[in-house]
Predict the structure.
Amino acid sequence: MQKEVNINDLWERITKDSDSKSFEVFFHELNPRLVKFCTMYVQYQQVAEEIVSDVFVKCWMDRVKMQDVQKPETYLFIAVKNHALNYNKRFSSVQLVNLDDHEGGTQLMTSASPEMELEKKELLFRMDQAISSLPRQCSIIFRLVKENGMKYKEVAEILNISPRTVHTQMLRAMKKMTVAMEPYLKKAARQAPGSTADSIVTALLTIWIFMGN
């Protein structure tokens, strides 16, 4: 909740006072998540970065006209989505790509051994594959809720669907994720050597906390 208040405060200073320092903070706060979101629609991260950059530039150029925007974060997500869809109309090859979590992605823990590190990376890789294998809208909804911490109502606004649809898609995603991940979770648990068993269990629990419930 505090984060939303800060974003709105920054937005007010940007649109009413043309405060460039506030815009810089605003950019660094939202840019990584917007780029990650955009890569769910376009094929290359570089393209996503350019699209997001264009949206931010337009926001700054039109800042005075945008004083009435009440939810700047939602507004930017919608703008990025629309730009990405327009990009896709111009280029025929479009696919959902796996997201790179090297910056601020889901972190499990510091592993105690190379073996544990490999187990952790494999589980994260399999989980990302499972998410990416979901139908595109379902995958996007899952990531917005679980990775961005958005409420169903916010996701509904961004994707122009009903909160009920978001809820239904999340239930479908959770069921498919459970089926997809179960073999790997069981395998990791069976293979855990005595000294690292607790670490493996901690990793598995962290994954399931990330996935919900």
Q: What stands out?
A: Residues 124 and 207 are 8 Å apart (CA to CA).
